[in-house]
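Observation: inputs received (chain + fe (iii) ion).
Thought: call the complex predictor directly.
Action: predict_structure
Action Input:
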Amino acid sequence: MAQRLRVHIQGIVQGVGFRPFIYQLAIRHSLNGYVANTPKGVELEVEGGRGALHHFLKELPASAPPLASITQIETEELPAAAYSTFEIKASEEGEERAALISPDTTTCSDCLRELFDPQDRRHLYPFINCTNCGPRYTIINDIPYDRLKTSMAVFTMCGDCAGEYHDPLDRRFHAQPNGCWRCGPRMWLADGNGEDLKISEPISEAAKHLSQGAIVAVKGLGGFHLAVDASQNEAVKRLRSRKGREEKPLALMSSSLEQIERYALVGDEERRLLTSSQRPIVIVPKRPENTIAPEVAPNNGYFGVMLPYTPLHHLLLIHPFLALVMTSGNISEEPIAIDNLESVQRLGKIADYFLFHDRDILLRSDDSILRVAGGRPRQIRRSRGYVPVPIFLRKPVAEVLALGGELKGTICLTKENRAFVGQHLGDLENLETLEFLELTVRHLRRILEVSPRLLVHDLHPDYLTTQVALAQEELPTLAVQHHHAHVVSCMAEHGLEGKVLGLALDGTGYGDDGCIWGGEILVADERNYARVAHFDYVPMPGGEKAIKEPWRMAVAYLWAGFGEKIFQDEQQALQTWDRNQIGILVQMMQRQINSPLTSSCGRLFDAVAALVGLRDRIAYEGQAAIELEQWLEPTTDRYQYELGEVGDGLLFSPTAIFAQVFDDVVSGVATELVSGKFHQTLVTMFADACLHLCKLHGLNRVVCSGGVFQNIFLLENLEDRLGASGLEVYTPQLIPANDGCISLGQAIVGAASLEQ
Ligand code: ZN
Ligand code: ZN
Ligand code: FE
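Observation:
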């Protein structure tokens, strides 16, 4: 007796080979019916014996194509319809619009096999791809996801390619970027002025130049990389000086895990991430003895490593490099270059050669960066491979647009039960990055078909994103406090509802009292927050300058704790700093000139790093705190801390802790131990405060966010400590703990405000 089922499937199920997969699965189980794309996903009907239907439904989610991501399967039973075949129904214009678009994905094993098969017609073709792999998000101009709406539109498929494209049983069925040597994109090598060198084997020639120490700009998937041989210190040094990047670690790419393991220590979870279809950069500890140039990651115990993720990378890394530096093709903090002509203008002074191709990148997307902490992967920079996969929300929300903060900018759009956090934009401090933001907003609004009712921005009046929001007249606006956004972003990721205790440990966020917050505990939900604990304020002499020069913060904590006299004593520990300069800072603070008040936890880390002599000035955000953590020697020893009660809240005294650090430094305690004690103090103090406040407010969930949670010791130990006390602890994983998460939190707060 035949039975008929209608099945609706939602998620990333279009443009990923889903219909051919269903077709083959149905045929295998001798089922008749059809499969079709719909505005919401995929609809199918299958008819046949009960047992066959049962196995079909069981296998469906388990064996779905690698790029598919099923969020919902609904089935209904219908009277038999006596189908005689199984067919794939063609899509009609407009049908695929609302479906989710897949991110760009690493070259699959089938394509790799063909790439290196001398008999294959795509042997060594640098743009080989199929339905299971290749570019997506970065080549799409509009939806539906169809070749004519991608940067492949200018390439007309040859007969062979078109044959594959139209055959439902071929693994290139509807693979929009399909192409070959005859019909698809091509590569060429150019000199530093962008002049085509007319080389017949451009990739091998580029590899030869790399092995001779040259800098080659390589056009990739989401933008240009600047490549040099990572074993050649002089070459890496030259790249650094030309790029204007002093000390921030440079990412490495090696041909295989075995190669990476020659210079880095890779754990199981890291190995899984490195070989995942997203192919992110993963932060892993250096091997103590390695032959990577010291200039790659100076004063840092870690490398950022990745495996090849495009055919071009595989072809480049056939050549015997232990690793290539593959860093974003930009000058310091500008957006990564994506256009051939533009790249010559912007990177011509850096690169000796350009490895170009003629498939346009429509939307730039940097490499994503993750690291493992507490046994789980954590996003640090969420971009290529992950965008535009949404964060799935607990329930449908209103459509809003959020512009994020300033550093590590992202935007977020909400639609139904999804929050789409866009790719990493960079620091929104210049016009180029702002233009990138506006382009991304337009693009995502178009391809996601979102019509926001509200524009959400940070409370900080000086952020460029705030100015953009206030300058437009299309949408009403809402300002959201930075740490409220931090906490709510983590709530959203974990699907939390109702009040939580939010522990926001951060660098900088504008507070509702006009001070710079960053060491806060909030009682928060999606609508409101109350600040129930924070670090006592200290001045930041010089404002922004105090962030770039941590020694200024050390002077500030000492001054706030001891007063001016501390600098008059002949303190050996303070001899490295210029006495006149100290005098100027003290005067600034006394007269309250350009010395905003801060409760930042990040600044306290900076100041301790400066006081122990690690770093007076930083070359990239968070550097002092990162180095302090790397010097850490775990200890149960710690400093005394004070939890002052003010009203029904708590006040942490940073100067009381800092004074003890100072005593240790004065009496010559080793840096490793000072760092260990300092970290231990914060863990104990925050755990203590969270327990107290949870009890006081009748809460049992603690939500953590803020850039300081990129500190693994703090994250892991606070998770353990709070968990052991019976509290539920939630930490960021899918979205960064840093300001990359701000747009998500803002969007959720904005959407909630529309419900009222
Ligand atoms: Zn493939
Ligand atoms: Zn072709
Ligand atoms: Fe922040």
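Thought: report the result.
Final Answer: Residues 482, 486, 506, 509, 706-707, 739 surround fe (iii) ion (ligand 3) (CB under 6 Å). Residues 3-95 form a domain with the Alpha-Beta Plaits fold (CATH 3.30.70.100).
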